[in-house]
Every structure is written in C-alpha cells, then in structure tokens.
Amino acid sequence: MAYQFERKHRVAIIGGGPGGYEAALTGAQLGAEVTLIERVGVGGSAVLTDVVPSKTLIATAEATKSIGEAADLGVQFFSRSDSGRPVRPEVTVNFSAVNARLLRLARQQSEDMKAQLMKSGVRIIQGHGRLDGAQRVIVSTARGPKGTDFDEIDADTIVLSMGASPRILPTAVPDGERIFTWTQLYTLTEAPEHLIVVGSGVTGAEFASAYTALGSKVTLISSRDQVLPGSDADAAMVIEDVFTRNGMTVLSKSRADSVVRTADGVRATLADGRTVDGSHCLIAVGAIPNTAGMGIEEAGVQLTDGGHIRVNRVARTSVPSIYAAGDCSDFLPLASVASMQGRTAMLHAMGDAVNPTELRNVTSNIFTSPEIATVGWTQKQIEDGIAQGVIYKLPLSQNPRAKMMGVKDGFVKLFARTGSGTVIGGVIVAPRASELILPIALAVEHRLNVDQLARAFSVYPSLTGSITDAARAMHIVD
User: Are 375 and 361 spatial neighbours (Cβ–Cβ below 8 Å)?
Assistant: First the structure.
C-alpha cells in the first residue's frame, strides 16, 4: 500500500530585515518550510546600519544632554584642582567608544535574531536572491576567489523584503570620510566640528538633533518653509524652535545644489549661490527601494514609478504567490509596519486568520529631542475636511511631572470624531513620546471615545496625565 504525505508549504524570503524576519518566524510557526536569503546579516540594514545604530547614537546624545541640563534641577558636577578649588569638569564624548558600542549592539541584535530563526527551523542562506518567475528564486553565493555558486529555490510563496538604500545625489557623492550617508557615520572617531545636514526630513532632523547634543556645530539645510515638512505643523514648530535655541543654524527655503570636498572639510553650494563651509556633511534626502535588477517586473509584479512594489493591505503584490514587506513596498516605510506586513503576508498565504493592516492605526515616532509621536488622522486632514473631528491641544508645561523634570517644550494633542467623541488620532511632543503614545494608539485601534479614555486612571504625577486631562477636556455633552 502506497502512502501519500502532504508536502509542506514552501516559502522563500529575500531579505532578512524586520519584514523578512517576521515572515520567516510566522511561516515556521505555521509549519512551512522556510528559506531566508540575506546578503549581509539577519536584521538587514535596519539592524546593522540604520535603526539600531542610529537610535543607539541618539540614546548617547540624550544622556549627554541630560548631564548638561542637570544644573537646572540643582545637580552640579565639580572636580578639585591641585589647589583644592572646585572646577566644573568638561563633558566629553568618546566617539570611538560610542561607535564601537553601537556597532557591537547592532551585531548582537543581528546574531540574536539569527539564533531565533535557526531555533525555529528556518534555513538561512547568505547570498543575493532574485526572482526567476513567480515561484522560483535564484540565489548567488560567493565561494572565494574561484567565483560564484548559484542555487535555485522553488517556492509556493515568495516574500520580497529587500529594503531601501540612501538616495545619492550626483552633485554630492558620499565618500565615507567627509561626506556621508546615514549608514556611514559610524566610522567617526570624534564629533564633527561643523556638521552640515542636507535634508530636514525625519533622518536629517534626528541626526541634526543628536549631533547638536553631542557638541557639534550643526547647519541644517531645508528646502521647505519648516523642518519636518511631513509632520504635524505644531510639532515641527516646537522642534525648530528647540533647534535654533540650542545653537543650530536652520537654513529654510534653501536647496543644496552641490557638496564637495575642500582642503580641510566640505563646502555646500546652495541654489541661490550662497555657500556653507563645514568639517563634514550628512546627505539625508530620502531613500530608493532595492528593487532594481531583482527580476521583479519580469515576474509580472507591478512597481510604482519610483520603483516601489505595489501591495495591498495584506502585503500581496499583483502576482498571487508573491508578497512584499518593508521599505521596498509602497506602504509606510517604518520597521514596525514592515514587521506587521511580514507577519500578515504569511498568515494570508497560509490561510490563517488575518486582519488587513490599517495605516491610520499605525504609530510613528521621530527621535529628535523632544520626540514626536503620532497616530491616526492628522490635524491637516481634519482642517481640509477629509476627516470630521475636533482638536484639543494641552501644553506639556502645565503638567506637574514635566515641571519636576524641567521639561518646558512639548504638548499633547487629541483628535476626536465630531458628535461621537471617538478618538481618531493624536500627537505627542515630549521626552519619550514613543512610549507615551500607546494609550492614544489603543484608543484609536479600539474606537474608544474621549470619555472612555478619560476614565482610565493615569498615575499622578505623570506625563500620561496630560492624555487623560486632554480627553477629560473633550467630554461629550449629551
């Protein structure tokens, strides 16, 4: 008697960043035979050269800033001179130690993720993968001086998670010594004397904020009227005010035409002919998806004009067997969204229960000082009539815990549906706003109204008290 065994569902994943990692774990959990192809290491650029190292650098900047502001709270640092007189010590940052630590943490995070995948039974191949039709991946792996090996992987489901790379300007080509992308900054052995940052989006603003705190003179070149042009206008105004108050030079409505090396630094030339001389320059003008030369269009997968992979709310592409997650897709470019896409893709492909991703429920955060956290509908959408809502803003300076901490900048802003009072969004500008936004995110996700949010007990005193205070002020009158 011949027995027939059901073959396992075969999954091939190209790219081991947050999206590919979550897809691999979920596929293995659901019993699939999973192969993950990654060029540089599990975690991808998000872990090795982007999110983990940059946020570690920002944590160091926050510690430096806290020491500098401790005097406002009555804490004073003194050492003794040879004569016994008290001398205020100088706060310095050991960049070699800082960068060694952040790269070590990035490698450790990558190794931890790799170990978790292997424990789950995922097969990991280090190499370059590309599509060969809708159900096959060609993998090239280096085999030393003799050349390259090629392998073919047949799959029932393919997940593309190749991420994106910094956009390179032909008139401002990074060299990794004086002109950098955000992936190259971690070779510095000392703080730049004068860092020019080209681009005032999220990445540019975060690094400008961090290096100012780390002691560098910073000039931020922004082509828009205000920094962080895609963010809440009130939040961007607070951040720009903090930037200038901390000594940063913000050049608004200024476009950099070129950045070149000089004898001892760099020179940025603006569109109006002005020049800015500095010691180093960071180019932060967006990213491009790593989709070129991957056989994607040849497999029938639709791309946007910018090269991103078109996906629906379950991360499926125009080809039923192929999904895409993360910055290579045309969804929101956040690590948390990439993870959710990877998980959702596998649940959908394997026939499990799945909730399509709702972008309006996604929380995002900008790691400037203070941070900006947002969720749901925006004030501009409400003002433009796209969403019907009321707005309430509460300055953080009124919060008792903020006063104790010496926090002067920031606010909590809530958006509620007109009539029902359902919470539809919010903005928090505060230290650790990334941690404070969760109550509003839960309210948005579960369609709580302002009265229900106000009934939750916040600790007194706490920064979250401003959330319940704002909700209380928006009480629904019957």
Answer: yes
Instruction: List residues forming the annotated binding site.
Output: 55, 129, 199-206, 286, 327
List every span in the chain annotated with CATH 3.30.390.30: 370-473
Mean per-residue pLDDT of the chain: 93
Confidence (pLDDT) at 5: 52
Please state which architecture CATH assigns to domain 168-285: 3-Layer(bba) Sandwich (3.50)
| pLDDT over 60 at 88, yes or no | yes
CB 415 within 8 A of CB 364: no
Would you call 83 helix, strand, or coil by DSSP? coil
Domain with CATH 3.50.50.60 in the chain: 10-50+100-165+288-359, 168-285
Q: What's the residue count for the chain? A: 478
Amino acid found at 128: H
CB under 8 Å to 371, separation ≥6 — which residues?
365, 428, 429, 430, 431, 432, 433, 434
pLDDT at 148: 66
Q: Which residues are annotated as a binding site for FAD?
A: 55, 129, 327
Q: Using alpha carbons, list the distances in angstroms from residue 409 to 98, 374, 437, 463.
A: 28, 17, 17, 13
Residue 68, φ and ψ in degrees, nearest 5: -65, -30
Q: Per-residue pLDDT averaged across 212-234, rounded?
A: 95
Instruction: Determine whether domain 370-473 maps to CATH 3.30.390.30.
Output: yes
Distances in Å between the Cα of 188 and the Cα atoms of 97, 154, 211, 215, 280 are 10, 44, 12, 14, 10
What's the confidence (pLDDT) of residue 1?
Answer: 47
Longest dimension (CA), the chain: 97
At 49-78, the pLDDT tens digits run 999 999 999 999 999 888 888 878 888 877
Which residues are part of a known binding site for NAD(+)? Answer: 199-206, 286
Q: Residue 214: what pLDDT?
A: 93
Give 181-207 pLDDT, tens digit per residue: 999 999 898 999 999 999 999 999 999
pTM: 0.93
CATH of domain 10-50+100-165+288-359: 3.50.50.60
